[in-house]
């Protein structure tokens, strides 16, 4: 059985996955932004198995780093990280939002936070190889404009969301190459289209699928050996946006990401 950290576990897909994993005998480390909701979730999970809660606001990179440090210290047996938390496109027509650090909010939470959390936990994951990193992405992907990576011009929430998920996919492929032969696999997936979540409903979209539909792919990548550097549509191997595979694009993304993380 594995020790698994799930970000964004207090609602939607993350909550469903947390219960499925704890019922299967895994130790679930449930992250949430709100302390009360996280504590209530952990109390429920503990009726099914072993669980522990961790609170952090992923829109604050200092808190993301703190989360990684606390998890590494409290749970040195961690061997699976599921980067599930995310911010959707928002209410149609809503304006550009910033994180606590001044970054475009969707890029900050959907890309920068997983990068920072993964880096902070890599030493633990390496020490517990074979280990797995699962990045919950989206089929909605749009290449970044490297002259305006934080979308200060012509902003739309959905475009910002799709760019952040493109960045997460491209980062996944780069990280998989870096971790080759380390025993740590990393994959990215589109769980299901328009699941019945608050994120989808906020966007004004009628749900097409349940969170149970989306959970199957996440659970498979978290618990099965499915290689590394892959993009999955649910449980099926698929192709991300073609530019996400381009070495030059990924190199430029890495450079921009480092610049944003040092601001």
Largest sheet: 8 strands, mixed
Mean pLDDT: 93
**DSSP strand content:** 5-15%
Judged by helices, strands and strand pairing, the structural class is alpha/beta
Number of strands: 8
- Terminal Cα span: 40 Å
So how many helices? 8
Molecular structure report:
This protein is of the alpha/beta class and 263 residues long. 44% of the residues lie in helices and 14% in strands. The chain has an eight-stranded mixed β-sheet with strand order 3-2-1-4-5-6-7-8, sandwiched between helices. Helix 5 links the parallel strand 5 (131-136) and strand 6 (184-190). 49% of the residues are buried.
Summarize the model shown.
This protein has eight helices and eight strands, in the order E-H-E-H-E-H-E-H-E-H-E-H-H-E-E-H.
Topology (SSEs and partners):
Elements (H helix, E strand, L loop, with lengths): L2 E4 L5 H12 L3 E6 L2 H11 L5 E5 L5 H14 L5 E4 L21 H23 L3 E6 L20 H22 L5 E7 L7 H5 L8 H13 L7 E3 L2 E3 L8 H16 L1
Parallel strand pairs: 1-2, 1-4, 2-3, 4-5, 5-6, 6-7
Antiparallel strand pairs: 7-8
């Amino acid at each position: 059985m594995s020790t698994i950290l799930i970000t964004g576990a207090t609602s939607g897909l993350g909550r469903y996955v947390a219960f499925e994993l704890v019922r299967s005998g895994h130790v679930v480390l449930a992250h949430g932004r709100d302390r009360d909701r996280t504590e209530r979730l952990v109390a429920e999970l503990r009726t099914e198995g072993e669980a522990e809660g961790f609170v952090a606001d992923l829109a604050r990179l200092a808190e993301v780093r703190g989360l990684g440090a606390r998890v590494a210290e409290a749970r040195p047996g961690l061997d699976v990280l599921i980067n599930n938390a995310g911010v959707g496109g928002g209410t149609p027509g809503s304006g550009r939002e910033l994180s606590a650090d001044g970054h475009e909010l969707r890029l900050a939470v959907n890309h920068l936070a997983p990068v920072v959390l993964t880096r902070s936990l890599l030493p633990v994951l390496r020490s517990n190889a074979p280990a797995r990193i699962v990045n919950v992405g989206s089929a909605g992907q749009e290449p970044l404009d490297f002259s305006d990576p934080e979308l200060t011009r012509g902003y739309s929430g959905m475009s910002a969301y799709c760019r952040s998920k493109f960045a997460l996919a491209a980062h996944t492929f780069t990280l998989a190459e870096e971790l080759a032969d380390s025993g740590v696999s990393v994959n990215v997936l589109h769980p299901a289209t328009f699941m019945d979540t608050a994120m989808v409903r906020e966007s004004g979209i009628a749900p097409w699928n349940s969170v149970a539909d989306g959970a199957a792919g996440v659970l498979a990548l978290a618990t099965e050996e499915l290689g590394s550097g892959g993009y999955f549509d649910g449980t099926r191997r698929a192709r991300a946006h073609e530019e996400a595979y381009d070495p030059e694009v990924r190199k430029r993304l890495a450079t921009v990401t480092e610049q944003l993380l040092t601001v």
